[in-house]
Amino acid sequence: MKDAKYWHAGPRWLAGVLVTASAMAGACGAAAADAYPARPITLVVPYSAGGPTDVVARTLAQAMSQDLGQSVVVENRTGAGGTVAAAFVARAQADGYTLLIHHNGMATAPALYKKLSYAPLKDFEYVGQVADVPMTLMGRKDLPARTVPELIQYVTQNKDKVSLANAGLGAVSQLCGLLFEQSVHVRLNAIPYQGAGPALTALLGGQVDLLCDQTTATLPHIQADRVRLFGVTTPGRIKALPQAPTLQEGGLKGFDVKVWHGIYAPRGTPPAAVERLTRALQKGLKDPAVIRKLDGLGAEIVPVDKQTPDGLRTLLKAESDKWQPLLRSMKVEAD
Question: Which pLDDT belongs to residue 314?
């Protein structure tokens, strides 16, 4: 009977142990999730310090640091149109401590580089969108054309002479220029520069005729009347330049180009870490200091439903479908 007593008590005792162990495991898992982040996070920027993407990154990193309780350290890894940084993050340990902030280059790289070591749509987890930066189509100050219709006529009649600057392969200024060429059915003399700064300097100096660049760089020169502004590249007028018409108003139907930024983590990053980062991103984008800074750059914070993994995933797919066929049709690729 004694043996029978212990025989019947055994399973009940074992069940209790299992329940207790399960509860402890769940508590440990929750504690681990709550503990993230336990050390500083690195936010990798594909472009040089002081550039538009770097400014957005540093502004946001400071705000996210306050919410996360850990430093978000910005690290610049330049080269190959942003692919060096993207490849680095794609290969990084998927623990939530190495992130990437990138713009349209995530969508265009597969069409520009034959040997890309990562797949933008497959090798990352998505944290969320950040902000959109409108572009402006500008001409040198003494360009004969003054409106979009006049510009279309001018470039059509002088296509062999008109120069169109850009900030280099894969830059959004190049994409904007390609879309303009496609819209007016001409090929102009494209002149690439090593970055947006030199391209803008060339336009200000009258060395090139046209440039499409983002408001983060062009606003001061437009406001000082140093360039001829033809219009903004977004479907609607923008808060930073309410008096400026859109290119669509000027007759370029469907013209829509903007610089967009998103934050990514390596594929396999724990969902709890991604969710925590998304919350920090959303809170950071509500910070009055961040709003003021981005407003001053002409950037527009995206709606909260886009500050999410699904929002960024949807955008990247749509932008890939938009730009990759155009780049391939115009035979634009890296050497």
Answer: 98
State the alpha helices, DSSP H only, in the chain. Answer: 2-35, 52-68, 83-91, 105-112, 148-157, 172-184, 196-204, 215-223, 271-284, 288-296, 309-329
Q: Write down which residue in 198, 232, 266 finishes a domain.
A: 232
Q: Give pLDDT, residue 321.
A: 97
Q: Rounded mean pLDDT of 320-328?
A: 94
Please, are residues 85 and 78 in contact by the beta-carbon 8 Å criterion? yes
Same domain, 154 and 190: yes
Asked, for residue 36, whether it belongs to a domain, the answer is no
Confidence (pLDDT) at 216: 84
Distance of CA 202 to the CA centre of its chain: 26
Cα–Cα distances in angstroms (integers) from residue 73 to residues 39, 51, 70, 202, in the given order: 11, 16, 9, 33
Specify whether 280 is located in the same domain as 322. yes
Q: Assess whether pLDDT exceeds 80 at residue 235.
A: yes
Q: How many domains does the chain have?
A: 2
Same domain flag for 103 and 141 = no
pLDDT, tens only, 236-245: 999 889 999 9
CA distance linking residue 68 with residue 335, whole number of Å: 42
* DSSP per position, 226-273: -SEEEEESSSS-BTTBTTSPBTTTTT-TT---EEEEEEEEETT--HHH
Residues 115 and 157 in one domain: no
Q: For residue 81, give every residue at least 6 positions away whose Cβ sits within 8 Å of its Cβ, in sequence order, or none.
A: 46, 105, 109, 112, 113, 168, 169, 170, 171, 334
Looking at residue 141, its amino acid is K
User: Which DSSP string corresponds to 117-143?
Assistant: SS-TTTSEEEEEEEEEEEEEEEE-TT-
Strand-pairing partners, residue 100, are: 44, 264
Structural domain containing residue 197: 134-232
C-alpha pair distances (Å), 284 with each of 57, 102, 152, 165, 255: 11, 17, 42, 35, 31
Residue that the structure tokens 């990084």 belong to: 92
Evaluate whether 56 touches 299 at the Cβ level (below 8 Å).
yes
For the stretch 19-54, pLDDT in tens is: 444 444 444 444 445 699 999 999 999 988 887 889
Q: What is the pLDDT of residue 20?
A: 47
